[in-house]
Structure prediction request, 227 residues.
Amino acid sequence: MRSILLIEDDRALNSGLTYDLEIENYKVYPAFTLGEGIGLLEKEQIDLILLDGNLPDGDGFDFCRAVKSERDIPIIFLTARDMDQDEMRGFDCGADDYITKPFKMPILHRRILAAFRKSGAKEEHTGYDDGYLKIDFDKLTAVRGEETLSMTPTEYKILRLLIANSDKVMTKCVLLEKIWDNSGNFVDEHAVAVNINRLRKKIEDTGHEYIKTLYGMGYQWKGRNKA
Prediction:
């Protein structure tokens, strides 16, 4: 699991970003000041930094320059400083990307992946294999026993989200937000239930139950990955 150091003094935004990125299967270390961020950077294994330009105890640009002088680690600015000279300053101090607020989360997700690719970080193989059910999210293939399953892109997205967050209960609202919010089509919670039921028919049988329904709460992945 890749780790992200998030240095953002807006507590609501920090909390929201941490929640969203953890749903995307990142380990997030939240910090509200540069001092906290420096402490986490020294103590933890950090793969990428999301950095605000304006912080209560220092300048994010100077911090970026100092980090880049010592470590080859991707840094993405998330800042309200939207002047051209601010963006140029960000790149001049070594930033890998510069995103101005407000921004859309899907765009941030793509920029993070792009920063990892740019840094040469090895792509993580993602999948599931318990000896009976085998899912490869890179190749978009699924096999149950000896049977190759036909799955829709939406079903793969749901499975990936459930498996990546098997320690959490995924509410219908979260699934809607993550899977359908950017489709441009209106869908409601019924779409989640329909797709979950279709998935169960494809991957489950009397001896194998994978998706647990917690009534009034949501769904949780029950399978155990040996891959």
In short: The helical segments are 11-23, 34-43, 60-70, 84-92, 105-119, 153-164, 172-180, 189-203. The chain has two domains: 3-119, 128-221. The first strand starts at residue 3 and ends at 7.
